[in-house]
Amino acid sequence: MKIGVIGYGYWGPNVLRNMIAHTDAHVSVVADQNMERLAVLKKTYPAIQTTTDALDIINSKDIDAIVIATPVHTHHPLARAALLAGKHVLVEKPLAGSLQDAEDLVALAEEKHRVLMVDHTFLYTGAVQTIKKLIDSGEIGKIQSFNSTRFNLGLFQSDINVLWDLAPHDLSILLYLVGRMPTFVNAIGASHTGNAIENIGYLTMRYDDGMIAHVSVSWVSPVKIRQTLITGDKKMIVYDDTEPTEKVRVYETGYTVRNDEEKRRLYTDYRSGDIHIPKTSTKEALQGVVEDFVRAIQKGTQPLSDARFGLNVVRILDAAERSLKTGGAEVRFAS
Ligand SMILES: NC(=O)c1ccc[n+]([C@@H]2O[C@H](COP(=O)([O-])OP(=O)(O)OC[C@H]3O[C@@H](n4cnc5c(N)ncnc54)[C@H](O)[C@@H]3O)[C@@H](O)[C@H]2O)c1
Q1: For residue 204, what are the β-bridge partners?
Q2: Rounded to 10 degrees, what is the CA torsion of 134, 91, 51, 20?
Q3: Fewer beta carbons within 10 Å, N or C terminal of the chain?
Q4: How many CA atoms lie within 13 A of 109 on its CB side?
């Protein structure tokens, strides 16, 4: 399978390296508007052709599939052109910069019978795969809350706010783990850079059954935090992605409540038990992304992070954006 890659900035080289490592994929050409990036590429991969014009790849008869690793505002025009040219597409997260554009891409991919997959890398990490198994096995019990924090200093983006940049990671993890959309979304944020692009964002989601989820994202933190707390009615999980190896901890911790009708009091019994650290795979997540993409093209399988999954992430981001612009009003999803 002949692959072309568009975008060789910060993330593109990681996808390219994993694509090259796949035995059934042959990356023949890379496009980047920036000549300096192409010069860097040539030093490592002299055999790969380069171009500054993405259309050279999109219109090439030799290319079967295209990776798009360019800034978010370019995802829709590039992916649209690639799908129209009959290519399969692996696009970086988020699928597109607006709900309308994301819906357009999903419809086009379905009409053209092409694979459109979004690189929601975290789904393919050993940690998230382990947590998924724990939840699906019933060990954690009914999920009551999901609370994710993703803070760092930078990288400030100029075309999207911090919610569109960082929250796709947490939202993809949430949607994958619980397998359903929230009912209500609200978000607030703040911009301190004078360009009205929020650099701090807080997003809350409510589910019909009482589950609550919260995602906090920031480009302005002195320390890097990537922590997700998942509370079930049997056990609780702490997922700390900054830990080098022991990323997932399962706490046999919880509580039971008794209501005393007469005294109208709530009695709470707390349980504190062992902490278990499950073994997690250390396989590079992008290897899994690339394998899922190639398999979907070759065998017609459904990728974990397919276009409709990516669309649901964008639906939440779109609702969050609308809430943000109205000072945090709750936005309800049409059922
Ligand atoms: N999956 C992840 O974990 C992850 C991590 C980081 C970034 N990303 C995503 O990757 C994408 C790229 O982010 P980045 O941080 O690498 O950005 P970047 O700015 O570092 O790199 C983007 C590159 O694309 C090139 N480019 C822009 N428009 C182009 C066009 N029309 N044709 C050809 N080249 C073009 C630029 O010259 C630049 O070299 C974004 O969508 C971002 O959300 C994903």
Answers
A1: 186, 214
A2: 30
A3: C
A4: 25
The residue among 256 and 274 whose pLDDT is bigger is: 274
Q: How far is the centre of ligand 1, averaged over its atoms, from the C-alpha of 307 (Å)?
A: 19
Residues flanking ligand 1, CB < 6 Å: 6-12, 31-34, 37, 54, 69-72, 74, 92-93, 119, 121
For the whole model, what pTM was predicted?
0.97
Decide: 24 and 293 in contact? Cβ < 8 Å.
Answer: no
pLDDT band at 335 (very low <50, low <70, confident <90, very high): low
Residue range 2-122+286-305 forms a domain whose CATH class is alpha beta
Pair type for strands 184-190 and 236-240: unpaired
Least confident of 24-38, 86-100, 249-263: 249-263
Topology annotation, domain 124-282+315-332? Dihydrodipicolinate Reductase; domain 2 (3.30.360)
